[in-house]
Amino acid sequence: MTRIGFGIDVGGSGVKGARVDLDTGEFIGERIKILTPKPATPDAVADTILQIVRAAEWEGPVGITIPSVVHGQRALTAANIDPTWVDTDVQELFTRHLGDREISVINDADAAGIAEVMFGDEQSRSGAVIFLTFGTGIGSAFLVNGTLFPNTEIGHLIIDGIEAEHFASSAVKEREELGYGKWAKRVTAVLREYERLFWPDLFVVGGGISRKHEKWVPRLECNTPVIPAQLRNTAGIVGAAMAVEQGLKP
Ligand code: BGC
Questions:
Q1: Which of 19, 3, 89, 95 is closest to 50 using CA atoms?
Q2: The domain 4-110+241-246: what is its CATH number?
């Protein structure tokens, strides 16, 4: 029997959801996307999620990612989302909107990390792995032999007086019109600092820009091997569905 779950990924531009085959990490049927409401307050986003779940005619458990620290199922930070998320009880919020069903809420990078390790490159399944997503910010997930240490927020690590994500996210690359060479130098500086502090066995780099990995990953100069993520933009949804199936409620 196929194990099927449902994941929702809340991003800055879209809220996306799909049924997920939990044995293969593949979507079953269409991915449904609705533009992120503006302002993206907790109630507005929760209502958007309800629309997606209804459109999919899904009545089971739902896993949800948000770009925030999720501790004790409360959202605690809001670096790139509406500030009203801070201190929101996300279990209460989503149960109120989605009704009585199993719900897990997890940080977006943590979700992508667990999905990548399960369904991506086999190398990431063992050892100490730092998974990073380069987008509006820099998200991170720490995994040891596939097990997540949640809510590592090393995109906010201050390196040479500036937060890593304000220096080397892919949004910064665009904003400052940096070529891949210049940007790879910045990413190198960030990875070297992570190396110096955490000594991982492997970096896995994801986010939209990992689609063009051949333009920048070979230019990175650090001692730890770096491989591109394989799951691309399905990772958040797949990880969200995995989280609720595993009862992961950071
Ligand atoms: C947030 C993280 C998030 C990352 C990627 C950062 O600004 O603090 O929680 O995982 O962006 O969205």
A1: 95
A2: 3.30.420.40
Report whether residue 79 contacts ligand 1, using a CB cutoff of 6 Å: yes
Instruction: Please state, in angstroms and rounded to a whole number, the distance separating the CA atoms of residues 231 and 133.
Output: 12
**Taking the CA atoms of the chain, what radius of gyration do you get in angstroms?**
17
Q: What is the pLDDT of residues 91-115, one digit of tens each?
A: 999 999 999 999 999 999 999 999 9
Cα–Cα distance between 128 and 111 in angstroms, integer? 17
Q: Which residues contact 174 (CB under 8 A, 6 or more apart)?
A: none
**Is the confidence at residue 19, as pLDDT, over 90?**
yes
The answer to whether the pTM exceeds 0.90 is: yes
For ligand 1, mutation pick of 68, 70, 76, 110 (most atoms within 8 Å of CB) = 68
| Highest CATH level, class, for 121-228 | alpha beta
Atom index in ligand 1 nearest the CA of residue 11 equals: 12
